[in-house]
Amino acid sequence: MSATGQFLPPPPLDPPERLLLGPGPSPVPREVLAAFARPTLGHLDPHFLRAMDELRAMLWPLFGARAGNGRVLALSATGSAGMEAALVNLLEPGQRALVAAHGVFGARMAEVARRARAEVTVVQSEFTEAPDMEGLEREAKKGGYAVLGIVHAETSTGVLADLSPLRTIADRAGALLVVDAVTSLGGLPVEVERHGIDACYSATQKCLSCPPGLAPLYLSPRALDRIAQRAAPAQSWYLDLALLEGYWGTDRAYHHTAPIQMIYGLHEALRQVHLEGLDARFARHRVAALALWAGLEALGLELAVPLARRLPPLTAVRVPAGIDEAAVRRRLLETHNIEIGGGLGSLKGRVWRIGLMGTGATLSTAERCLSALAECLTQQGHTVPADPIAAARAAVR
Amino acid sequence: MSATGQFLPPPPLDPPERLLLGPGPSPVPREVLAAFARPTLGHLDPHFLRAMDELRAMLWPLFGARAGNGRVLALSATGSAGMEAALVNLLEPGQRALVAAHGVFGARMAEVARRARAEVTVVQSEFTEAPDMEGLEREAKKGGYAVLGIVHAETSTGVLADLSPLRTIADRAGALLVVDAVTSLGGLPVEVERHGIDACYSATQKCLSCPPGLAPLYLSPRALDRIAQRAAPAQSWYLDLALLEGYWGTDRAYHHTAPIQMIYGLHEALRQVHLEGLDARFARHRVAALALWAGLEALGLELAVPLARRLPPLTAVRVPAGIDEAAVRRRLLETHNIEIGGGLGSLKGRVWRIGLMGTGATLSTAERCLSALAECLTQQGHTVPADPIAAARAAVR
To answer: B42 and A339 in contact by Cβ < 8 A?
Structure first.
């Protein structure tokens, strides 16, 4: 407070330029940051409505759906709200949900479904394991499920789930198939139509290289039917997909005020995705990951997830015995200006999580990370057995 | 699609610079837009956590609460999510809620409370009327209410509610007092402690002059106790205030990934608020409104709300007979680059809503609006009886 009772505010923010290699947010291209600073429009301005339409047009191919076959939009909240929107709109109280939990986000799906008053059956696997498809099939045979939920790319463990058997399992269960694509959309194929996915949500701050704040969402025609036939409205007014379509659709009915700058940012991020091309982008994520993995092994580190189910955009690597994992992360941040993530849930303190996502998925980023990590590990007395940079380059030669 | 099957994205967005005088978003200062383009940080970066702490420090005096006496934070979604968060966290299924509805947003409070499975009693008044305090008192006497909800500044009608009798009424009802300050916070005093408010939410895109996307929220110690004593978790995981405190508080536990650029923007917007000073800002909103009101009357227009309960930041003005209200708004936008709002609910097609909010609350903005409106009305054959600019200036001389 000043002498006159006026509150003295802090100085303007001056955030440092980090290399963001944690589980998100990922590095943001300058074009996307610039889009955030464009003049604010009203949420019903014709120019803004056109931006929303263009954004939808760019989401269809990203999700792997034909334009108009179902619905796409971007929810005005972060990825976790995408999960909640999918579940509270597709489940009614007392209905049954089957959830595969092989990490923190699968467990969260189960919790969100419980809060929607569904009866939830969880098919659990260990962290770093793949989802238990046999367990899911066994449960599915019992039938009577309204929703089958699974995480495509488990951000907590770096495990990639195989989507191809899920439609058959969901059909056996009688369920709509809900897929969490938070850490896959834009970094590897999701292909909702090919896999018969009914609801798929993501986030902006992972492989799309946009700052966090929106949840891109796809719904199949079947999911739309389910929503239209609900006995009662969804418990969330804010995330009510029937009401939201009134705004995103041709009615343009006021629901809430859209977060204008976030839409600008995602519009530009999606433009960047399509200018690069999906196949090129997926290949880039894969190459960068191969380089990182080889380099981490050259550093004498153990990858937490076997190659067959390892997720390119996000890698969990075990903390060697005797190393202070938090101190390594702190030094990476403070000395090298690089952010990586720690473990979550049962992996807390036991792994680091390194994301090469969006524009961060390059060989040079992988090399910068490996060099810095080598320095931090050596500083704690870890012996580096081989040259990580040479190994990284050899892996992608 | 290109020949190779690659999707051809639209060109970059190039939104025009509008003068935003609708019900929000309001004009955004250049410093705030610039903050949106600052480098993205991780949501657990020490620099970002400090930004969150500073943001909290700036929210306390804005809400009129002593730092630490309760809780303040900014929810990662728009103002409507603030409403939902307050109600789903403070109400448990089967509890009773008393809601004053004198516009669209009061009615929305009732709907959101119903979706939280509360038994809702609505005390209704006509649009443009004040909330029915006698009706509230009559209901409150019956007791047994968990929540009394009311809108401070009805954005749909431009009516300002008197907060001073509400604590007594809420006490009689046995209720926590929930106040919607979406269109008042930063534009006129809210003073949660003085009025004994237990939960108060707002939005960024009104009198704070920040683009939409976050919901500033205050909770009293009593509200926190209520949340701590819930029998079951809130139905919304995303808006669960107990979990959110784990992230905003000293634990810094991961809940969801905060919308980094939105926090930058609100941080800067709050800085601008406090650099100006609350009293000066409130006075500026009042003066701009007085000018606008006098000018509108000089134009031969009727204000929808009597002076005694008229809200300075947002004015509803009746559409004269024979005027095509949508055509006026369209011409204002296309010819004058000025956005104003149409009516909502029962006022749809019958009023315009003109917001002089945040940095838009100045005499010169009011004059620009009046001149443009005069031109649009004259163009439709309306006779302007007096000089609106002279009237506006005279009102604030």
So the answer is: yes
